[in-house]
Design brief:
By secondary structure, the chain is an alpha+beta fold. Helices cover 21% and strands 32% of the residues. The strands form 2 sheets. A 6-stranded mixed β-sheet has the order 3-4-8-7-6-5. A two-stranded antiparallel sheet has the order 1-2.
Amino acid sequence: PVLRALALFSLASGAIHQVVTAPCYTSELPMFKTLWATLKPGDILLGDRVYGCFPLLAALPLQGVDVVARLHQARQLDLRQAERLGPDDWKTTFSKSDVMPPYMTKKEWEALPANITVRIIRSRLRIKGFRTRTLWIVTTLTNDSLYPVTMIVDLYLQRWQMELSFRD
């Protein structure tokens, strides 16, 4: 049998706060939902693409938790209607889907707002010897003067350290 593990790390200390395990083919989002209650107001969830979805971007700020994640691959992004905050930086609105995710109850789904305001940041990574990669980051940290683009991109790039911690 193969085990899937999901952990909440402190980026500041590297300490593991919580761990959830499940069979290998279990989706991460139902596993993560069991950890929502451990997040405290003022926390920032830093995650990969699966965490850049509407349900998390809408639900976590309701408990005072912000999100910085890579934009979910299913999100069709149209920035023509977005407010441009600067080069590679926009504020836009995401709308709630008609389809409720299976990991949420009907009551939880109905408690989510119909629309949320998020910030979209495009980062072009140029690493010598590799092709340039473009990352689309979505965040609920919408105040561009408190949270400059470089700070959010640097924070997102630290996410890889968490992945290496699992390896270690």
